[in-house]
């Protein structure tokens, strides 16, 4: 059931389309979805590392007269 949900929800494959596939084809789609999620997660983590730079403490502003 979990495999069917993943293929339907993320792979946009109907239950009919899934029933017409061989077990090898369904397995390939599942591995491909896993790779897609892994690549997306790595890309997001790399982006977070690149944007998260140490900030320098700011000096308080002194009001000018």
The count of DSSP E runs of length 2 or more, i.e. the number of strands, is: 0
Q: Biggest β-sheet: count, sense, barrel?
A: none
Mean pLDDT level: 86
Q: Rg, please?
A: 23 Å
Structural class: mainly alpha
Number of helices: 3
What amount of the residues lies in strands?
under 5%
Instruction: Return residue spans where pLDDT drops below 50 for at least 5 consecutive residues.
Output: none
Order of helices and strands: HHH
Tell me the span between the first and last alpha carbons: 72 Å
Into how many domains do the coordinates divide?
1
Question: Rough shape?
Answer: rod-shaped
- Helix percent reads 55-70%
Structure described in brief:
This protein has 65 residues and is mainly alpha-helical. It has 3 helices and no strands.
Structure, explained:
The protein has helices spanning 2-9, 15-20, 23-51. The longest helix is centred in the middle third of the chain and has 29 residues, at 23-51. It has 3 helices and no strands. 66% of the residues lie in helices and 0% in strands. It has one domain (2-51). The chain starts with a helix and ends in a 14-residue tail after the last helix. The protein is an all-alpha fold and 65 residues long. It is rod-shaped, with a radius of gyration of 23 Å.
């Amino acid at each position: 059931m979990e495999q069917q949900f993943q293929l339907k929800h993320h792979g946009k494959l109907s239950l009919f389309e899934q029933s017409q596939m061989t077990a090898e084809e369904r397995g390939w789609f599942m591995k491909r979805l896993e790779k897609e999620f892994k690549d997306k997660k790595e890309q997001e983590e790399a982006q977070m590392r690149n944007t998260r730079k140490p900030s320098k403490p700011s000096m308080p502003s002194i009001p000018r007269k």
